């Protein structure tokens, strides 16, 4: 597995690297090795549902660029959300793997997983994967689940476990005893904690048994030694977890989500709130119908939990994506969502009960025209296969165009890590300076008040200056009511205009923070 999932996002957000080119280079280096990607069903690699024509074209381009195996999952475990992607994969001659996103709750039983397996087989898949993204699959549950699936269905079955809680190695072994066909591991120097069990340990465990892998430990050690050196370069980017974390057995936070939370709380100068956020996550998950925690729902639940903790009031601010789940825009939830929250976001409307993508009109032509227009306006040269750039911007509208603008400008992205072992970043003697700054967004000026530590504590439209003197203070109280941002982030889109009359609850602007969109609403009419 080498593509899809968060790798696409990381390429354009941090590395300044074209993910399509990366895929072509990987296939060039490994022409005989089947390459696998993680695909979020109707969400593709983004955080919303896309029309079927976009899903079809993305899969076509991924196959054309070198992808062979598509592990297709849906964060809601709604098979309707996987159907279009799975059918597109098979129509282009690639391997379609349907996925059970494993979770536990009062709503999830063995029969839940057997029913979903049957539905995926009816849709048409080449194999099934059990995706234990949080490391909560117990060894006994793994044995039972694999045994029952293999007993009832003729299908190749894979198991993917994260090592976060310490049960993954045991779960893999019991699954192998039960007849699983493939398991995911990582080379030892890149294994455990947030990742997967070590390859060499499992190879040694199975040596001389009927499940002997035939892999050479000495050759594996050469690979481990190589990545041991590579890992040193990324020391400063590693998460806090050094062993196992039993909190995950309660919070059910996937490894990738946990590192995201740690990083994002640091950005909010709230790293000390991690335990509170982990305690809030199960409560938010229950409010949202006991949904599995896997991208994008893991980010949605995590962001909402952070908002609930940082604002000091549960659901004082509801993220746009949280509202989408409550409205049914992401598909069926395992059990009904919190009725009061749903009524609040529906505002008298009706929830979505059909396949969400059935409500979407074909959008590829419009997306392509829009990207070409923006590229022309900004003087951006699109790639030879322009559709790849169109899909990049379509999946990541907040950062995709910025990537295209700076594709050949490494200075616009994170610097390459040093070859030698990185040292922990020294703690600053003083927190980030507070102050008041004028920020221009889409030609509109805003006065941003930054508190000690770097948090945005106040956000107001800037009053045109009478002279060229720098702004020394925010707009006076008489000029309007300050709007407080619940999170530090980037202003992605300004909705309200200067002088516009707004009602309480009207959307003023959209803040992009923690990879989610948060609507900033008017606290009062005016």
Automatic annotation (TrEMBL):
Keywords: Biotin, Lyase. GO terms for biological process: gluconeogenesis; sodium ion transport. Its EC number is 4.1.1.112. InterPro entries: Aldolase_TIM, Biotin_BS, Biotin_lipoyl, Carboxylase_cons_dom, OadA, PCB-like, PYR_CT, Single_hybrid_motif. Coiled coil: none annotated. Gene3D superfamilies: 2.40.50.100, Aldolase class I. Residues 1-221 form the Pyruvate carboxyltransferase domain. Residues 476-526 form the Lipoyl-binding domain. One of its GO terms (molecular function) is oxaloacetate decarboxylase activity. The keyword Lyase applies. The keyword Lyase applies. It comes from the Bacteria. Signal peptide: none annotated. GO terms for cellular component: cytoplasm. Pfam families: Biotin_lipoyl (PF00364), HMGL-like (PF00682), PYC_OADA (PF02436). This is Oxaloacetate decarboxylase subunit alpha.
């Amino acid at each position: 597995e080498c593509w899809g999932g968060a790798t696409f996002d990381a390429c354009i957000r941090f590395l300044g690297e074209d993910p399509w080119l990366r895929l072509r280079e990987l296939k060039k280096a490994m022409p005989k090795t089947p390459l696998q990607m993680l695909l979020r069903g109707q969400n593709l690699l983004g955080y919303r549902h896309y029309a079927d024509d976009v899903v079809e074209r993305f899969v076509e381009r991924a196959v054309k660029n070198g992808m062979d195996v598509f592990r297709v999952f849906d964060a809601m475990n709604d098979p309707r959300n996987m159907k279009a992607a799975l059918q597109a994969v098979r129509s282009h001659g690639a391997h379609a793997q349907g996925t059970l996103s494993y979770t536990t709750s009062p709503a999830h039983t063995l029969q839940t997983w057997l029913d979903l397996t049957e539905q995926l087989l009816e849709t048409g898949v080449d194999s099934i994967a059990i995706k234990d993204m949080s490391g909560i699959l117990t060894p006994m549950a793994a044995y039972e689940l694999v045994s029952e699936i293999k007993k009832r269905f003729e299908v190749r079955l894979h198991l993917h476990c994260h090592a976060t809680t310490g049960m993954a190695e045991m779960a893999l072994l019991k699954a192998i005893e039960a007849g699983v066909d493939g398991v995911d591991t990582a080379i030892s120097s890149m294994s455990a904690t947030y990742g997967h069990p070590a390859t060499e340990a499992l190879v040694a465990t199975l040596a001389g048994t009927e499940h002997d892998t035939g892999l050479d430990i000495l050759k594996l050690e050469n690979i481990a030694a190589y990545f041991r050196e590579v890992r040193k370069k990324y020391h400063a980017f590693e998460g806090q977890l050094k062993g196992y974390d039993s909190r995950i057995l309660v919070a059910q936070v996937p490894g990738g989500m946990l590192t995201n939370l740690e990083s994002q709380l640091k950005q909010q100068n709230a790293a000390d709130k991690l335990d509170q956020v982990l305690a809030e996550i199960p409560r938010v998950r229950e409010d949202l119908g006991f949904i599995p925690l896997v991208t994008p729902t893991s980010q949605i639940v995590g962001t909402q939990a952070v908002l609930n903790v940082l604002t000091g009031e549960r659901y004082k601010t509801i993220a746009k994506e949280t509202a989408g789940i409550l409205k049914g825009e992401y598909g069926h939830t395992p059990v009904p969502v919190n009725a009061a929250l749903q009524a609040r976001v529906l505002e008298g409307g009706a929830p979505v009960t059909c396949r969400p993508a059935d409500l979407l009109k074909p959008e590829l032509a419009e997306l392509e025209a829009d990207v070409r227009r923006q590229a022309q306006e900004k003087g951006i040269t699109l790639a030879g296969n322009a559709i790849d750039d169109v899909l990049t911007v379509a999946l990541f509208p907040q950062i995709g165009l910025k990537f295209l603008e700076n594709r050949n400008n490494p200075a616009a992205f994170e610097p390459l890590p040093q070859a030698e072992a990185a040292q922990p970043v020294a703690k600053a003697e003083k927190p980030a300076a507070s102050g008041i700054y004028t920020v221009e967004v889409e030609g509109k000026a805003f006065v941003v008040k930054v508190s000690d530590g770097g948090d945005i504590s106040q956000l107001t439209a800037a009053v045109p200056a009478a002279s060229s003197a720098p702004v020394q203070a925010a707009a006076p109280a008489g000029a309007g009511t300050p709007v407080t941002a619940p999170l530090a982030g980037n202003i992605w889109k300004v909705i309200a205009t200067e002088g516009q009359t707004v009602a309480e609850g009207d959307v003023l602007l959209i803040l992009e923070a923690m990879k989610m969109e948060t609507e900033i609403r008017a606290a009062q009419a005016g």
